[in-house]
Design a protein that fits this description.
This protein has 444 residues and is α/β, with parallel strands linked by helices. The chain has helices at 6-30, 68-73, 87-96, 120-137, 162-177, 191-200, 218-228, 260-275, 311-320, and strands at 39-43, 48-52, 55-56, 59-64, 78-81, 100-105, 143-150, 183-187, 206-210, 234-239, 283-289, 333-338, 348-349, 354-361, 370-377, 393-396, 405-409, 415-424, 430-439. The strands form four sheets. Strands 4-5-6-7-8-9-10-11 form an eight-stranded parallel barrel, surrounded by four helices. A five-stranded mixed beta sheet has the order 13-19-18-15-16, with no helix packed on it. The protein has a three-stranded antiparallel beta sheet with strand order 1-2-3, with no helix packed on it. Helix 4 (120-137) packs parallel to helix 5 and helix 8 runs parallel beside helix 9 (311-320). The longest helix has 25 residues, at 6-30. The protein starts with 5 loop residues before the first helix and ends in a 5-residue tail after the last strand.
């Protein structure tokens, strides 16, 4: 009977041994004098504190690469930059707007079945690329942190594999080339990935967690990790409203997107519930500071294509500026109906029929509001790990419409679609909602 528990007993003592080893390494690292560095971490009674240019620095910003003046004006101090192609001009703009930059260094994710890291030519080329990037920008005054990889699917293994060996070599390389800036990586709040990173890559300086609907799991996760080994410093590298993968879907698997008003409410709830009361964190970055296509072109977009601001912008500004008396509101959308029904009703229409869509506000409509309606083919074959292209538009109304309802002809081609409405005020702001529907030719 006892024999069946041998693997668990072995794993228990192995974790203790590895944790003890890490504690020794961890203590050695804390003895290093960091005060002569541009950016460094210091152990405190409550966790860790980030310092920049000799002063405490709490990360308070967003992920993106645009609207940098708006970020500064709203009270932000940091931008996370994913794209290194135009990095020189981006960092110059970051510095011009008195912001700091967390710069992503793109590297391939770990894949068990087709890992790129088993190819030595690939590994050497990757090392050269990282070396060139770090040497080029390590002295830029806007630089705060190097972020080595995003959601890498860090594997839980007992013995270091090729991915972990290369990952650790890159950490050491960056430390050698640029001792003035910490090295981070971004994970989803996964127990297995976080534990394995702590055990195998303990020379990394800090961890970023990309968290949306699972933001609440970070503090318990760090607490559990600390039972095995001292937890690394961390920050929230992405947070916001729940992602498409976390929401209710239609029968054809189209995620149902909340209105921009509801998403803004979730930002506030997330911040006050799981971020503001967490002194152990080095800071946080809202997602996404700009406009992007991810399932839809509105799901994570705090701005629209021409720079109009959503309610999320103003709610974040109130948080960063500690303005409890803040009352500004963009148009407040309650919900959208199509054919008198909501998205949860699984709207299926015949091609070519006439339908009516309407938007209902939480308050009396302002006479200055303008409405625009659009229909797009549903981009339902999206891959969360790949960049998406905006789907084909099949209908667009006049932007200057004062009517909160519209009559439209259902597309003739069978398949999934999504109808959008945008409500614009006279101050350069917008609110939005959308509803997925399916066109089914029942006669075929």
């Amino acid at each position: 009977m006892v024999k069946k528990y041998y693997p668990y007993i072995f794993l228990f003592f192995l974790l203790i041994a590895v944790g003890t080893f890490y504690k020794v390494m961890h203590l050695d690292r804390e003895k290093i004098t960091n005060e002569n560095k541009i950016v460094y971490l210091k152990k405190t009674d409550s966790g860790y504190q980030l310092f920049r240019n000799g002063s405490p620095f709490h990360i308070q910003g967003a992920a993106g690469d645009s609207h940098l003046k708006d970020l500064h004006d709203a009270g932000g101090n940091t931008i996370r930059v994913y794209d290194t192609i135009n990095l020189a001009s981006t960092l110059d703009e970051v510095h011009k707007n008195n912001l700091a930059a967390i710069v992503d260094i793109p590297i391939p994710k770990f894949r068990k079945d087709h890992s790129a890291y088993i190819n030595e030519d690939h590994n050497q080329a990757l090392i050269k690329t990282v070396e060139g990037l770090v040497n080029t920008y390590k002295n830029h005054p806007a630089l705060l942190v190097w972020n080595l990889g995003n959601e890498l699917d860090y594997p839980l293994v007992l013995k270091k594999n090729n991915f972990i060996k290369v990952f650790n070599n890159l950490i050491e390389l960056i430390h050698k080339l640029d001792p003035n800036h910490p090295v981070s990586t971004s994970l989803i709040p996964s127990r297995t990935q976080t534990l394995s990173l702590h055990l195998h890559s303990f020379k990394i300086d800090m961890i970023g967690f990309n968290a949306f609907g699972n933001l609440k799991t970070i503090k318990p996760l760090i607490s559990k990790i600390s039972y095995i080994t001292p937890a690394l410093p961390y920050y929230v590298s992405e947070w916001g409203n729940s992602g498409p993968w976390e929401k209710e879907t239609t029968n054809w698997r189209a995620p149902i997107e909340p209105t921009s008003t509801k998403k803004a409410e979730q930002y506030l709830d997330q911040y006050h519930g799981f971020i503001s009361n967490n002194p152990q964190s080095l800071g946080n970055l809202v997602f996404y500071w700009g406009q992007k296509q991810e399932t839809t072109h509105t799901w994570f977009s705090i701005f629209d294509e021409i720079g109009r601001k959503s309610q999320i912008y103003y709610d974040i500004e109130s948080i960063w500026k500690f303005n409890s008396n803040y009352t500004f509101r963009t148009p407040q959308i309650n919900y959208m109906l199509v054919d008198k029904k909501g998205a949860q009703s699984n709207l299926i229409f015949k091609p070519g029929v006439i339908k009516k869509a309407e938007i209902l506000l939480l308050e009396a409509p302002n006479p200055s509001y303008e409405y625009k309606w659009e229909i797009y083919v549903e981009g339902w074959n999206y891959n969360q790990t790949e960049k998406e292209n905006k789907p084909k538009q099949v209908f667009s109304s006049n932007q200057n419409s004062k009517d909160s309802t519209i009559t439209f002809k259902v597309p003739s081609i069978e398949g999934p679609y999504r109808i959008y409405v945008y409500v614009y005020d006279s101050k350069g702001n917008f609110s939005t909602a959308n509803t997925p529907f399916y066109v089914l030719n029942a006669d075929e």
